[in-house]
Design goal:
By secondary structure, the protein is an alpha/beta fold. About 35% of the residues lie in helices and about 25% in strands. Strands 7-8-6-9-10-11-12-13-14 form a 9-stranded mixed beta sheet, covered by helices on one side. Strand 13 and strand 14 (about 260-265) form a beta hairpin. Helix 1 (about 10-20) runs parallel beside helix 7 (about 140-145), helix 6 crosses helix 11 (about 270-285) and helix 16 packs across helix 17. Keywords: ATP-binding, Cell cycle, Cell division, Cell shape, Cell wall biogenesis/degradation, Cytoplasm, Ligase, Nucleotide-binding, Peptidoglycan synthesis.
Length: about 450
């Protein structure tokens, strides 16, 4: 059996290692450059690879192809493979076929990383040996090859879900839906929503789907479509029968006739969106039979996720916050919504089809100055030039932070919350966040 892996990054190299271990003839092909650390791993495992090209005769003889999530379906090599009827799947689908452990799959437009990490933390504190993978950390396939865990908590992007056929999580979570990555879905929001709901398409009556009952699009989909899984809603706004809701500033969860309560002010994470993330993680922990005391303790001491509303430093009474992980307007909405002081907002990057109107009232209310950090800022400039008096453009993070410092007064906040992808100026959102933190530390 010949396995061709498209993309020599984290998921590609992990899949190649697992494929080789399972007896496949493996070939890795990357249209770009493969990073040196991954080349070393490929060499160490005696795996064949090529970079900066896709050699058709070495690819079109595959029995199965694993496509890395960053490669769009419309790329010429993927079109050729599909024309020839060669199955093109995601790393999640490939690795899933070689394991018989429980998986918890978490998706959503925002909050999925925090929810995934918080869920994993609760389960780990509860003494279960589950791995953390998917869109986060060491690749799922690589970990399945190493075989050190008795289950996985997976953060799943729509791209990863596009490439599944049989994958089915025992517990699925959909945190929320808002337009994202529309450039990959023909600018059709419906197609993106369908991709997210693939998480439940293979679930059975023994599985669970945990979802945000306040989310209009999720409710719409569930009315029109059926899932076989048992549904567990969570809501900030109304009482739900079997599920989780908030009353008198307390989270109340009733799952499988077990009740769990926790005052919101004892959560370590701040903000309404984080109450929802905590509810989703609590539901999973209860289904996994983690002790109530452990859940409560873990929710009150979880440290949060790097690059997600991360407090960096307070300098001359100005708070600097790194929210580089906000790569769409919905994530930035949460960030601006949680600001309690006048805010200097650093925004911009690669626009994925953003509608800035939804931020308008928050920007009016909270933002005193905007610093556009991107190659092409005209859309942001046009959207907010009548709302904010001070707007500055730059393509350099150090300069952006210096300008922010000069505009901020005592008691203000400087917020990096880009609402865009990072690829115009940075390798990824992590690098963007690290540069921001370094620039703040050098002030």
């Amino acid at each position: 059996m010949r396995l061709v892996v498209l993309g020599g990054g984290e998921s590609g190299v992990g899949t190649a290692i697992l494929g080789k271990k399972k007896g496949y003839d493996v070939f890795v092909s990357d249209f770009g450059k493969i990073k040196n650390n991954y080349k070393e791993v490929l060499a160490l495992n005696k795996l064949e690879w090529e970079e900066e090209q896709h050699t058709e005769e070495l690819i079109l003889n595959a029995d199965v192809v694993m496509k890395s999530p960053g490669i769009p379906d419309k790329s010429p090599i993927v079109k050729l493979l599909k024309k020839k009827g060669i199955p093109v799947i995601s790393e999640i689908e490939f690795a899933y076929r070689f394991m018989d452990y429980k998986t918890i799959g978490i998706t959503g437009s925002n909050g999925k990383t925090t929810t995934t990490m918080l869920t994993h933390y609760l389960i780990k504190q509860g003494g279960l040996n589950m791995g953390l993978a998917g869109n986060i950390g060491k690749s799922f396939a690589w970990q399945v090859a190493e075989n050190k865990h008795e289950g996985y908590v997976l953060e799943l992007s729509s791209f990863q879900l596009d490439g599944i056929e049989t994958y089915s999580p025992n517990i699925a979570v959909i945190t929320n839906l808002s337009p994202d990555h529309l450039d990959r879905y023909e600018y059709n929001y419906e197609l993106y929503i369908e991709a997210k709901f693939r998480i439940t398409m293979n679930q059975t009556k023994d599985d669970y789907l945990i979802y945000d009952a306040d989310d209009e699009e999720i409710n719409k989909w569930l009315k029109k479509n059926k899932t076989k899984a048992k549904t567990i809603p969570f809501s900030l706004s109304g009482k739900v029968k079997e599920g989780i809701y908030v009353k008198d500033n307390t989270i109340i969860s009733t799952i499988n006739k077990e009740e769990f309560t926790m005052p919101i002010n004892e959560l370590s994470l701040e903000g309404k969106h984080n109450v929802k993330n905590a509810m989703a993680a609590t539901a999973v922990a209860q289904l996994m039979r983690i002790r109530k005391d452990t859940i409560r303790e873990s929710l009150s001491n979880f440290q949060g996720v790097e690059h997600r509303l991360e407090k960096v430093l307070k300098i001359q009474n100005v708070q600097y916050i790194n929210d580089s992980k906000a790569t769409n307007t919905n994530a930035t909405f949460f960030a601006l919504d949680s600001m309690t002081t006048p805010t200097v907002w650093i925004v911009g990057g690669v626009d994925k089809g953003n509608d800035y109107d939804e931020l308008m009232s928050l920007v009016r209310e909270k933002v005193k100055a905007i610093i556009c950090l991107g190659v092409d800022n005209h859309k942001i400039m046009n959207a907010f030039s009548n709302v904010v008096d001070v707007m500055v453009e730059t393509t350099n993070m150090t300069e952006a932070v210096r300008i922010a410092q000069s505009l901020a007064e005592k008691g203000d906040t400087v917020l990096l919350s880009p609402a865009c992808a990072s690829f115009d100026l940075f390798e990824n959102y992590e690098e963007r966040g690290k540069q921001f933190k370094a620039a703040v530390q050098n002030l």
